[in-house]
């Protein structure tokens, strides 16, 4: 178990520069937890008391505005979530976290999380940087909902997903390694499913994407990125 968790911890950007001995000393603070597919890890509005690192699996982070679901992110192995509500006592969860696959987590309680940050200023600063980047991305997503049309939002979200979850294939195409339904894509961009389906069909007919077993493939990643940049 220790070998596994050390490898997982080393993948996190704010832990990569920690002294090996110090990193080793943090291992007993983490508890391993296996969560079934379709489980809610926490709800929007809950009090935050835990921070999560994904050893394996896939988690969907989403919010509900009273009328529709808005997916904020997909988070998979080697990444983390749940830190924002722990940074300041009293903050509530700003979104819901749900597993899309059977998921293995390493869990850190608030008191241990705070202890780590207090003892390591560099780690605290780096985590702050990455948290600010996530907030910036969330704000950009909100702006996109206001200023971009549905097609432009779908183009932009596909580019983002290709950078976060993409694999470059031997033929130069980029495969997004998520099995996405049309409803999930609609929830990512604040559209209805019918609109998302129509736009995805248009993008296939125009030769920008193909779909293989629910995985979207960008036919020409560089050209696709240029198209998004021109939006």
TrEMBL record:
Q: Name one GO cellular component term.
A: cytosol
Q: Which residues form the Cyclic nucleotide-binding domain?
A: 14-117
Tell me, what is one Gene Ontology molecular-function annotation carried by this entry?
DNA-binding transcription factor activity
Q: A Pfam family name for this chain?
A: cNMP_binding
Q: Which Gene3D superfamilies match?
A: Jelly Rolls, Winged helix-like DNA-binding domain superfamily/Winged helix DNA-binding domain
Work out whether the entry's keyword set contains Transcription regulation.
Answer: yes
Lineage: superkingdom = Bacteria
Q: Which UniProt keywords apply?
A: Activator, DNA-binding, Transcription, Transcription regulation
Protein name per Swiss-Prot or TrEMBL: Crp/Fnr family transcriptional regulator
Report the source organism. Paenibacillus psychroresistens
